[in-house]
Specification:
By secondary structure, the chain is α+β, with helices and mostly antiparallel strands. It is built from 7 helices and 16 strands. It has 2 domains: about 110 residues, Roll (Membrane-bound Lytic Murein Transglycosylase D, Chain A), CATH 3.10.350; about 120 residues, Glucose Permease (Domain IIA) (Distorted Sandwich). About 35% of the residues are buried.
């Protein structure tokens, strides 16, 4: 037997021995391996706790109200309005034939241009991880305007608040707070200096700590302190509009954050040049101050 044949015989014998060993031990090792690597992880547990949205599309019948439809499907009116933010324009009247989307245990949210998942999580006070899990977004790098995401467990709808602060109907701007108008727009005697000056906004008397809402959707341009305004916020809106909220006791947003109309952005106070708790509110377009009472609903 030459050398090459002997080597082939030896390797063949080793192969038979290895095959026999694997036939006896292999399945056991595979079984042990899979048992060691299997089972739920912490993330799997969290994922299983997030309910998948069951979306129902319902056509509004003549004479039906939001309250009746919400009661029929066992959801809150606030959640119903929140899930249909682009459809519901009037809290007191529904057009027959309107298609409403109904979900339980949360709301549907339509992404706005420039809005991030972090913005959305802050809007609803729901952990970002829960929104990612509920919508299977772990592998997504981008989200796009117009996409709808399920916000699990959301109980507060900024759309509902916005429509309430707008008197029940969609408006260009909603009231940031409701209170007594203590000073209007235009020339007045400054309450501290006693000199005539131009008042660029309106003053609304409210108790210190009152929630202040964004008068319209937009991005936070300024969130800080000013010698006259005290703690204040400026929001940038479409069509060159800006809104300003001053003399705050607390700021609840940060620069660059996208906020929804009706979202809480801070709390009223008495900071800066102020003679008592109130909110100073301005509306500007391309830098020119406008009379807020001409743009706010009655």
């Amino acid at each position: 037997m030459n050398r090459s044949v002997r080597i082939a015989v030896i390797w063949g014998g080793l192969g038979l021995l290895l095959w026999a060993w694997w036939a006896h031990q292999g399945p056991m090792l595979l079984s042990e391996s899979f048992r060691a690597q299997g089972g739920p992880t912490v993330d799997d547990e969290a994922l299983s706790l997030v309910p998948a949205p069951d979306i129902i599309e319902y056509e509004v019948q003549p004479g039906e109200t939001l309250e009746q439809i919400a009661a029929r499907f066992g959801v809150s009116v606030e959640a119903l309005v929140g899930s249909n933010a682009n459809t519901v324009d009037n809290l007191h009247s529904l057009e027959p034939g309107t298609i409403l989307k109904i979900v339980k245990n949360g709301v549907l949210h339509a992404v706005k241009p420039g809005q991030t998942l972090t913005d959305i999580a802050r809007t609803y006070g729901v952990p970002l991880a829960e929104i990612v899990h509920a919508n299977r977004l772990e592998d997504r790098e981008y989200i796009y305007p117009g996409e709808e995401f399920f916000i699990p467990g959301a109980v507060r709808s900024p759309t509902w608040t916005y429509l309430q602060m707008a008197g029940g109907r969609r408006s260009l701007f909603a009231w940031p707070v409701r209170g007594v108008l203590s000073s209007g727009f235009g020339t007045r005697i400054h309450p501290i200096s006693g000199e005539p000056h131009f008042h660029q906004g309106i003053d609304i008397e409210v108790p210190e700590g009152t929630e202040v809402y964004a008068a319209s959707a937009g991005k936070v341009l300024v969130a800080g302190r000013h010698s006259g305004y005290g703690l204040y916020i400026v929001l940038q809106h479409s069509h060159g509009y800006r809104t300003l909220y001053a003399h705050l006791a607390e700021i609840g947003v940060y620069r660059g954050q996208f906020v929804e109309g009706g979202q809480v952005i801070g709390r009223s106070g008495n900071t800066g040049n102020s003679t008592g708790p109130h909110l100073h509110f301005e509306i500007l377009q391309y830098g020119r101050p406008l009379n807020p009472l001409a743009l706010l609903p009655p």
